[in-house]
Amino acid sequence: MAIDFDQFPLEDALIRKDSREMSPVWNDFMGTFYQNLIGYLSQYGIFIPVVSSAQRDSIQSPVAGQMIYNSTTSAPQIFQAGAWKTFTTS
Asked: Is the pTM of this model over 0.85?
């Protein structure tokens, strides 16, 4: 039986600390979570964070490939080669 994500325990009490195997509880949860995620993404697509230019500039350590939707410029942006680049259609 699947467990709702909000009710899922943070630690798996049935797993040994030196083991790489998940208990049946975690296996069940991960299978259900994966199926739900695929269903959601296939219906709605992905969502990227919507932030203003000021909020974007306050991101302390952006990483290459990080994406945002800039609400100040009304454009999607990606952090690449040390700078935020705006997606263009041309």
From this structure: no
